[in-house]
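Treating backbone geometry as a discrete language has practical consequences that deserve illustration. Part of our work consisted of pairing the sequence of a single chain with a tokenised description of its backbone. What the numbers capture is local backbone geometry rather than side-chain detail. For completeness, the protein is quoted in full, as a sequence line and a line of structure tokens:
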Amino acid sequence: MRSVLVTGGAGFIGASFVHHILARRPDVAVVTLDALTYAGSRANLPLDPRHTFVHGDICDTALVRRLLEAHRIDTVAHFAAETHVDRSLLSPDAFLRTNVLGTAALLEAARQVWAGDRGCRFHQVSTDEVYGDLTPDAPESREGDPYRPSSPYAASKASADHLAWAWRRSHRLPVSSHLAANTYGPRQFPEKLLPLFVLRALRGEPLPVYGDGLQIRDWLHVDDHCAAVLAILEGPEGRAWNVSGGVQVRNLDLIHHLCETLDALRPSSQPHARLITHVADRPGHDRRYAVDASALRAELGWSPSRDWRAGVAETVRWYLDNPDWISAIQSSPAYQSWLRRRYGR
């Protein structure tokens, strides 16, 4: 691995991975390709002489081919995706274009440029949501389990995964992938639960909890997520790996911990938990996700380092300590439009 193309590198996890690999691999150059749609920001990216930013669309196969050639890219870490389930329920077309057609365009560009070079690698970033809903007593999903996506988002990611493995089978393109649990941490765009609730709580607005709030998620800190990706890229191709935080937490428990953290850091006249408001559940809402990451632990030596309670508290503090980042997001017309459409404000 000498030169890496990170697609979606101005987004939450992609930018975190750019920071991670530059800090830990001084011999590697990084090129970020990002369309800078609503959730991407150049402010998320580091200033480093080994990093090059390119504003562009992953669906532009000719552009991707030029980047692979000009920068002698030998590794593609494909983070670019539309990711928010709520958005996929309202506007699935964008998810099909980016997650399915965009992945196909990248795979084809890599096939054309690498032309059978087995020293290269296309890494597909996926999600535990492709496995679908688990009952409370079901075993954790394992690599190779059937895909049963419930949302347009999850279905589009499942399609992208199948495309990556099809290119490996049909064209012998070196491929690896990972399926990650719910990821949280600094710089996450505030449409996702944790940053959305922090910002709403600070404004004294209701915290809208879907249904009874007892949905179970496996929470993974973004630093642990990035460490897993680097371990996988330095491991063998031809494998899919589950990445898990190793803890399953009910949404309502996480929200109460978030409120308690805010009570300690930003005391108000009443506990922030008073803002919790149960709303109608979203369509097809999966009850539980949980993945078994024992293969990654045993074979590549990776394990999560962050306790979820400490990680959530640290993340809340990051949002409180970065008001300029928050202000830039909140003033964005695209973000304001989304809030009006989804939450009526």
The two ends are 47 Å apart (CA to CA). Residues 127 and 179 are 4 Å apart (CA to CA). The mean pLDDT is 94.
